[in-house]
Specification:
Organism: Amycolatopsis heterodermiae
Shape: globular
InterPro entries: BlueCu_1_BS, Cupredoxin, Ig-like_fold, Ig-like_OmpL47-like, Ig_E-set
Protein name: Copper-binding protein
Keywords: Copper, Metal-binding, Signal
Radius of gyration: 32 Å
Number of helices: 4
Structural class: mainly beta
Number of domains: 6
Number of strands: 42
């Protein structure tokens, strides 16, 4: 007899005796955050909660969509005004860490608003907030449904495994938590689809609780899993590179990657690759790589039984053979009088193209002045004859001959200068200084010929055309001077504004007990790469975490590859240093026996302090 009928009979029996039915304890409140491949937002996050003791779950794993091995943190803000500061939480998660990216913490929440964010460099857009309230007014429980998916046999049984996805909605105070119970086991917070692979009949119960504390009736999903017969061995997959190579082994103009996969049992179902930090892509034909620079090609294959091969990697460099300079031209536009002169202003547009390595830069100069990077059409409004020179350079370094256009600008009837103003915005401290940075916004208006341009300079810097708000982050006192000119050539009087920028509080140290050895050392193998701080208090040795528990040596190497690839993408680590660290990980014995073909030699050089032979 299942536990649910027993509970019902017990309640009826107690009622007959005139005894109260024992109260069922409310489920412990659980709030769940998940991470994925995104560096701008969490994959999921709560928006509301009830006060009291709460289980915080942060999962950043392959199951939640992180297929690149990227690290994220879940950190509660304890300094920004307007938020609760009574919870200190700073959780670092990676899909290949000893917890496989899933971490829990217990905290006590109080009514009010909490702010959370990620401290990893380059992930500062990952930020959000949630409100803790008593949920007064909402008396309607959430609606929750389940969907079971997977491969099925003709009888409707699931082959090898079944995946159960839960969906909950609440139009009142909002969903606070979703839970499930498999085969009468303990209730577990739901954060991602549940994969069930044990053979036999199964019953999955599910329920949801809203912010007001209303809990839905328990739903049930029934399904049966049977054994998937056959193949248990992953495919064999290799990659080869072809193309013209120079004396250094670099590929000239293009390197073509061909991936080959075989499987002697169930056969190959899919082959995938990714180039550098790109997304995994289905492989259907050889891949030509033409972008100049160093590249890493990753590849893997899956057979029809669902077995996936270990990730393979191929390193190579592409260089360009382009010897032809770009083609560049310029045109002048504006209102012209009967003599062909431009009234008020002339606009010069420069166009460049390069069929070889591509355009690298375009420059111009006005009346023999300094060469300036061309980013938008150039407006010339001062009255008189003018000469604009222009040129372009391609990626391979070839520079075009200098081109020239000449024209004359005459003044219009407008004699009134534009009206200008300045505003400074940003987060301010108690003494009205700007914390971390200040944003300067200029406004210019002209009721007659119209504003031609506005310009500014910060402190003793050069005058610069104003196009978008200016962010000033250098610490200390600053003075911004500004002015504007209209189409008729009238220039406003120079004005100024002053403000002070002070340092923002440092982010929490993600690794208070750092590994501070001089170089990155893995299992006794010295990579000779400097053990630097990655920007959040953790060193390279900290994030590699050689002393953690790993399921296998291959699992540890996969962790190192993922972590170092992310550091390269964030500009913390060079590709060459990454290759040295990955090589040290492969040659080490961390996590178990080294991978095939990489046996650790008994005479491996041991780590010595720098400065010793």
């Amino acid at each position: 007899m299942s536990p649910r009928p027993i509970a019902v009979l017990l309640a009826a029996f107690l009622a007959l005796l005139g005894l109260a039915t024992p109260a069922v304890a409310a489920p412990v409140q659980t709030l769940t955050w998940t991470g994925s491949n995104s560096t701008t937002e969490y994959a999921s996050a709560p928006t509301g909660a009830l006060p009291g003791e709460t289980t915080i779950v942060f999962e950043n794993s392959e199951a939640t969509g992180n297929t690149t091995g990227m690290s994220h943190t879940l950190t509660f803000d304890t300094s920004t005004p307007g938020y609760n500061h009574d919870v200190t939480l700073n959780v670092l998660a990676n899909p290949f860490d000893p917890q496989n990216g899933r971490h829990e913490a217990t905290v006590t929440l109080t009514p009010g608003k909490y702010r959370y964010f990620c401290t990893i460099p380059g992930h500062t857009s990952m930020v959000g907030e949630f409100v803790v309230s008593d949920g007064t007014g909402d008396t309607t429980a959430p609606t929750v449904t389940a969907a079971v998916t997977g491969d099925k046999d003709p009888s409707g049984n699931y082959l090898g495994s079944a995946t159960v996805s839960l969906t909950a909605t609440d139009a009142g105070s909002g969903v606070a938590s979703v839970e499930y119970q498999l085969d009468g086991g303990t209730w577990t917070p739901y954060s991602a689809p549940v994969v069930v692979s044990s053979l036999g009949m199964h019953m999955l119960g599910y329920r949801a609780t809203d912010v007001a504390g209303n809990t839905s009736a328990e739903g049930m999903a029934h399904f049966t899993i049977v054994e998937r017969q056959g193949d248990g061995t992953p495919p064999t997959v290799t990659a080869s590179l072809a193309g013209t190579q120079d004396a250094s082994g670099n590929y000239v103009d293009v390197a073509t990657a061909t991936i080959t996969a075989t499987d002697a049992d169930s056969g190959v179902a899919a082959v995938e690759y990714k180039l550098d930090d790109g997304a995994w892509t289905a492989y259907t034909a050889p891949v030509p790589v033409t972008a100049a620079g160093m590249h890493m090609l990753s590849y893997r294959a899956r057979d029809n039984a669902g077995n996936t091969s270990p990730e393979g990697m191929a390193h190579f460099t592409v260089v360009k053979s382009d010897t032809t300079a770009p083609v560049v031209s310029a045109s002048v536009a504006g209102t012209q009088d009967g003599d062909g002169h431009y009234v008020g202003k002339a606009v010069v547009t420069v166009t460049a193209s390069d069929a070889g390595s591509g355009v690298g830069a375009v420059e111009y100069r006005v009346d023999g002045g300094a060469w300036t990077a061309y980013t938008a059409p150039v407006q010339v409004s001062s009255a008189g004859a003018h000469t604009v020179d222009y040129r372009a350079r391609d990626v391979a370094g070839n520079t075009s001959a200098v081109g020239t256009v000449t024209f004359t600008v005459v003044a219009g009837g407008d004699t009134t200068a534009p009206v200008v103003s300045l505003t400074v915005s940003g987060k301010q401290s108690s003494d009205w200084s700007y914390v971390g940075q200040a944003t300067v916004t200029l406004t210019a208006t002209d009721a007659e010929s119209g504003v031609d341009f506005a310009e500014y300079k910060v402190d003793s810097g050069a005058w610069t055309r104003y196009t978008t708000p200016v962010v000033v982050s250098a610490l200390g006192a600053h003075t911004v001077r500004f002015r504007a000119a209209d189409v008729a050539g009238n220039v406003s009087a120079e004005q100024s504004g002053a403000f002070t920028v002070v340092a923002a509080p440092p982010p929490p140290d993600a690794c208070p007990n750092s590994d501070t050895r001089e170089t990155v050392v893995i299992g006794g193998i010295d990579s000779q790469v400097e053990n630097t701080d990655i920007g959040n208090g953790c060193t390279l040795n900290d994030v590699i975490d050689e002393n953690a528990e790993y399921a296998s040596h291959d699992r540890f190497v996969k962790h190192v590859k993922a972590v170092t690839q992310e550091l390269v993408a964030n500009g913390v680590l060079s590709s060459g240093d990454r290759n040295r660290i990955v090589t040290a990980a492969i040659e080490s014995g961390v996590g178990g026996a080294p991978a095939a073909g990489h046996d650790v030699k008994p005479d491996v050089k041991k780590v010595k302090p720098r400065g010793q032979d």
